[in-house]
């Protein structure tokens, strides 16, 4: 992919994470100038020989709420890729702080990694955070694009307990989960487009190529691991009871449980053509992801 004529330096937040690092490598391969925003410089993506990525510098900040450091990190950049923060009761406030820093730094554009069905009344409680963030970004008047990802394939594998049971109140619902690779490819296409303005004000649903049930997820994991993995469709009461001993906050537990109830409600079943449109290839299915990333689910082999 070539760089669009109007592309300036790109700041990638969360660049040491799975999505941020994949995006950083893709931008570097395309010759884009970028700034990697990380908490720890030692964890910033680097070439296999240990050298920094070409045309890349690193900014270290303690977190999105570290306003002075965020303003400094964004200064001199044209676009900020705002990879959403980890689930937290203060996540919207953290996002707003990062957006404020982008405005103060004179950034022209924000590309925000959101979630499908972002809405104030979404069943999935974490999707409500994304809606509030989107509204805040829109109010800045900056150019903006929202990448609304579905659940990641990796998340489905992590839903399985040590006993080999994927349990949750997902009913017979289906989920069009997506790979980190496909999201990174779509983000790269948006950022380096020869006509970047065509993405202004647009929200893209980024999904996998098919919607599968949680029972099918268990079957695919069983085939991959050689171990019997099952799906147990909990009731809502059972879901809260089974998670009561995790020591998590009510905010976290509500998010975990509602990720399943949103599947049951059909809110994560829509399959979009965004990956195919932006990459000219079919997106990666869950079964294909299992083949390509065995280390990500190796813990399930038992």
UniProtKB/TrEMBL annotation:
InterPro entries, A to Z: Ergot_Alk_Oxidoreductase, NAD(P)-bd_dom_sf, NmrA-like
Domain of life: Bacteria
Pfam families, sorted: NmrA (PF05368)
Residue stretches making up the NmrA-like domain: 8-232
Protein name: NmrA family NAD(P)-binding protein
């Amino acid at each position: 992919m070539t760089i669009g004529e109007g592309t300036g330096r790109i700041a990638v937040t969360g660049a040491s994470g799975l999505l941020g690092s994949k995006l950083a490598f893709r931008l570097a391969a395309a010759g884009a100038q970028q700034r990697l925003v990380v908490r720890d410089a030692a964890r910033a993506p680097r070439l296999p020989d240990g050298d920094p990525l070409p045309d890349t510098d690193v900014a270290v900040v303690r977190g999105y709420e570290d306003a002075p450091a965020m303003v400094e990190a964004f200064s001199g950049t044209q676009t900020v890729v705002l990879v959403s923060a980890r689930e937290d009761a203060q996540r919207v406030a953290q996002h707003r702080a990062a957006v404020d820093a982008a405005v103060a730094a004179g950034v022209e554009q924000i590309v925000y990694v959101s979630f499908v069905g972002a809405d104030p009344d979404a069943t999935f409680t974490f999707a409500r955070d994304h809606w509030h963030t989107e509204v805040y970004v829109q109010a800045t008047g900056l150019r903006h694009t929202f990448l609304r990802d579905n659940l990641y394939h990796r998340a489905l594998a992590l839903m399985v307990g040590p006993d080999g049971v994927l349990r949750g109140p997902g009913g017979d619902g289906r989920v069009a989960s997506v790979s980190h690779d496909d999201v990174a490819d779509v983000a790269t296409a948006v950022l380096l487009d020869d006509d970047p303005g065509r993405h202004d004000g647009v929200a893209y649903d980024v999904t996998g190529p098919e919607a599968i049930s949680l029972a099918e997820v268990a079957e695919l994991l069983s085939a991959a691991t050689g171990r019997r993995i099952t799906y147990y469709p909990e009731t809502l009461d059972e879901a809260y009871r089974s998670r009561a001993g995790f020591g998590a906050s009510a905010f976290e537990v509500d998010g975990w449980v509602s990720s399943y109830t949103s599947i049951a409600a059909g809110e994560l079943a829509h399959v979009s053509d965004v990956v195919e449109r932006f990459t000219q290839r079919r997106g990666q299915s869950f079964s294909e992801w299992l083949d390509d990333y065995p280390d990500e689910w190796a813990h399930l082999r038992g």
